[in-house]
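$ fold --in a.seq
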Amino acid sequence: MTRKVKVKRKRRAAVAEETAINRGIAADPDTYELTEADFKRMEPLAQILKRRGRPKSAAHKVSVTMRLEPRVIDFFREGGRGWQTRVNDTLVEYVARKQRRKTA
């Protein structure tokens, strides 16, 4: 078998494989070919990763360490995740009530 014949068979096999792949792509309802508009909307991954996390708050909270009775902590922890936020909300409510009483 000559070298030309081997090359032609390899090309035919590659074309056949490419055709089979394209048929599979066309048959898959979850895939589609990206349009020019899709490419324009894309962003580099590094840029997307920079935006991760919680959005910055306008009113920053201050980290403190305080000692509370175990029954107080247990009460708020029983509610599951977000217990520290519930403690904060309770204290905010308390402060607002005290301030209303002062001004009244």
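$ fold --in b.seq
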Amino acid sequence: MRRVIYTVFAVLLLGVVTYGLSKLEPAAPAVERATVFIDEVKRGPMLRQVRGLGALVPEEILLIPASDEGRVERRLVLPGSPVEPDTVLLELSSPLLEQLVWDAESQLKATEADYANLKVQLESQRLDQESMAAQVEAEYSEAQARFEADQELAEEGLIPNLNLTISRANAEQLAKRLRLEHERVSIRDPAVEAQLAAQQARIDQARGLMELRRGQFDKLKVRAGARGVLQQLEVEVGQLVTPGTPLARVSDPRRLKAELRIPETQAKDVQFGPLLSG
């Protein structure tokens, strides 16, 4: 009987304990004290401060690349020095560019000489043409005077009509030649202008090529291109560079921005935009 009573009592006790545990609410989660803010609940803005290391860096950095292939001959400015847009930072050398500049200058001189020669030739042709027109005009005047004289003599019966016919034909032929010579003189000027314009276009093309080559050669003196401070020189003396190779970096110290490094655990608390009040 005692064993039965103990058993019944244990079963009843287990039921009571189970019923009591089922009525209990879940326990609140535990957090560390350093990770929470304890304060009274109230309405208004809440400031969350996140600290991190940082530095002031330039807003814009001008990267100066090489425009042509060359070799670094001299470094004229040290990093940290103030520079102006025309300050020469580096001097490069390029035998190929020197040869191209010389060829372009020679070509320009040759085209200018061809223009002068063409102008002299056209002027000589103009004089010859005008001389020919003057000669035909003189021959026509003489033939016209002879025809008029023969016409008077023929009316008086002093010369046969055959002579009059010959003198008339000669005068008419010279009149046609004179008209053709005048037409040649009139159309000569547009033709001369066209030839000179074509040669002038060759001169302009050669001059443009020469200026391009000189500009490329002038860029062998690498300039800062902006006012600021030379941050870094990317090349050494004697180094061979190709087009696009970074040569130097220039920044403006008057335009800086703060660059902060926030720990990864706090980066989620940083948001862009204005704070909103409740």
